[in-house]
Amino acid sequence: MTDRNNKSTQNRIASKPPRQPGTLGEMLTAVLLSLMYAEQNGTSAAYQWDAARDEAARRWRRNK
Fold it and tell me: Whole-angstrom Cα distance, residue 18 to residue 62?
């Protein structure tokens, strides 16, 4: 049984956390948007992360 369990766990692919960018492109888009929004609004990129993440997801879904 141990051998079978090891094989099944080796093939699992980690899923992305909920509401987080999944692909490298989505992640980079979210980071760049958060920096851009922060500069435009005079706030921090961390403060703008939620808006940037949502916009990046929307853009990637639209282009698929």
Answer: 19
Q: In sequence order, what DSSP letters do the residues of 3-58 get, joined into one string?
A: HHHHHHHHT--PPPPTTS--SHHHHHHHHHHHHHHHHHHTS-TTTTHHHHHHHHHH
pLDDT, tens digit, 9 for 90 and up, residues 2-34: 555 555 556 666 665 655 667 888 889 999 999
- Which residues are within 8 A (CB) of 33 and not within 5 positions of it... i.e. 6 or more apart? 48, 51, 52, 55, 56
Other CB atoms within a 10 A radius of the CB of residue 8 amount to 9
- Which tokens hold the place of 45? 């990129």
Location of structure tokens 């916009």: 55
